[in-house]
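Retro notes, item 3 of 5
We never archived the inputs for the magnesium ion complex last cycle. Fixing that now. Sequence and ligand:
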Amino acid sequence: MSLIDVESVPRRTMTLFFLADTSGSMSGNKIGALNDAITNIMPMISEISNTNPDAEIKVAALQFSSGTSWLYDEPKSASDFIWQDQSAGGLTSLGEACIQLEKVLHRDGFMKSASGSYAPVVILLSDGGATDDYDKGIEKLKLNNWFKAAIKIAIAIGDDCDKDELKKFTGNLEAVIEVHNIEALKQIIRIVAVTSSQIGSKSTSATDATKQDQVVEEIKNQIDNVDGANTAADPSQATDDYWD
Amino acid sequence: MDLKKGQIVHLTTGGMTCTVIEELGRGGQGTVYKVDLGGKKMALKWYHIPPDEKFYKNLQKNVDAGAPSDAFIWPEFLTVRENGSYGYVMKLRPSGYYEFGQYLLARHQMKSLSAIFAAAMKICNGFKLLHRYGYSYQDLNDGNFFIRPDDGDVLICDNDNVYPQGEKSGIMGKARYMAPEIVAGGIPDKYSDRYSLTVLLFMLIYLNHPLEGARVAACPCMTEGNEKKFYGSEALFIYDRQNNTNLPVRGVHTNVIRRWPAFPKLLRETFMDQLSQEKLKNPTTRMVESMWENVIAKVRDTLVICPKCRQETFVEGSQTTGKCIECGAQFDITRRLVMGDRSMVLTPGTCLFIDMDNKPDIKVQTSSSGEMMLQNVSTSSWNVETPSGKIRQVNVNDCLPTRPGLKISFGTSIEGAPNAKAEVK
Ligand SMILES: Nc1ncnc2c1ncn2[C@@H]1O[C@H](COP(=O)(O)OP(=O)(O)OP(=O)(O)O)[C@@H](O)[C@H]1O
Ligand SMILES: [Mg+2]
Ligand SMILES: [Zn+2]
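Structure as it came back at the time:
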């Protein structure tokens, strides 16, 4: 092999987790919009990953209702990941979802990339409140070092959401984004996923703000153009729910 | 507010306008449109959210001052504030250039070693002139460079954060490219530019980040805290002279492991100096760009065509026999063209670069009798003095033999090196 021939520089892996609520209350338009949005953003995430010399993006997804299940038993590269449409039904085992996420956030779990990882991004989507022991789950998850370092964003679908639970998950209300209609849900899923996938490969204007804060700041800038979306820290901007 | 096809945008220069043709792409801060400006196709960057007054004034100043060199896709016109924002007009990026990251990902590959060093030279030259104009770039990273693989020509984009040295643009830079003192919270300036430049040159030449070796690879999760450590407070060059705990790892850092020993010692020494703990910690002691240009010129003086396999190879300049890095053949490298402290190795087919403009000035040919000849491929004639004192003129495209003792006066034939003189040894 000639010295002019080279291989790609080693890249760290950044795993993008979707934790999707598929409980009964999500049925109808909500689950339809969620299925549609995640399917549509995959090519964008794949493009970001393919042109990014800093990080390769992988995707993992957990659905939770009466029970929980991973779509695949390992993170898939964004170009290989295929979202399977989910149907809605059952309870909201958010506590169990936390336990399952904690289980894979280890080097011998989902975080076993040979060239190392960046802290993951976790996007939680839910429209209700946990029906199981949430506190037990979230307390355990919060002790996990990967989770501590992760960028955590929650998308609160509609007014019935328990924002305190989501705040416990993300660490602050700024990172809880409320959506109040189908279009807003779709747009926010795109904005949150794209923005958090790009954050490590962009120039920053601050070295003291955490990456999560930087992502939230960018989302805030874009949220103004989305009808029916606001951060939970700014409820005065909230519009009425409309899901038909 | 987005602009529409056919929309007319007003410029600050003498009532001029441009007309939007189509959208070219969307970035974090703005959208870039193709526009028509008096019949010429240009690019207009239009900000999503208009940056503040200081930014606007700075852009106008940069427009007035003009580009430091043709390497920069520079703001050429500023728009007036209208439609809720503003923007600036620059040249369209020509086709055939690819983002630096595409090379890092091996999606594109430089066509030759001389193209790699031409790119290195052009980048150094651009930043030398930029700093000489009194600017600092502040946000040097892999996203700002577009390179043509055939000849290594470089275009430097995203010049809207260029500020006078010492003034704060508000941008800190991109992780992995920011100098340790910026990671620690400092303000970017020309000294931190020089660190970022060294990182980029290293990545261009060796395709590996200079701080990413065993120590960094062993870190399972690059958290924000770890980033501050590995690229800031505890930054350690992979080939640090005193500390070998961060050496590249076989099977992971493949490119640099192959190229580091095969490329010239002068390069190794320069990177070991520039990325030593002392230089990492003392920004003002970092080497200026013109010194980098000299290093690259000298490296290029030892980049020759192998007489056996006809591929490019480096030879160690001080020796009399070269060994091809591609085919292993040994060949004579005693014949030189010497210019000051530079010693250019002569083998048939090799191009010599006297100044820094990446245009060959001399081509080494072989005469019908098999003698090595120097062909004048510069822009005008040279005067050549024989050891006995006779003067001969060598016109463009003509050749002179490589006889020891011949002295060449280049006169005005080489733009970047007026009145340069060299001797065949
Ligand atoms: N001079 C140009 N000619 C042609 N296309 C350009 C030119 N400048 C930028 N573009 C294209 O326009 C798009 C947006 O460019 P821009 O530099 O604003 O975006 P970016 O680098 O992605 O983001 P940011 O605004 O955060 O720097 C990019 O896809 C780029 O390829
Ligand atoms: Mg840009
Ligand atoms: Zn050879």
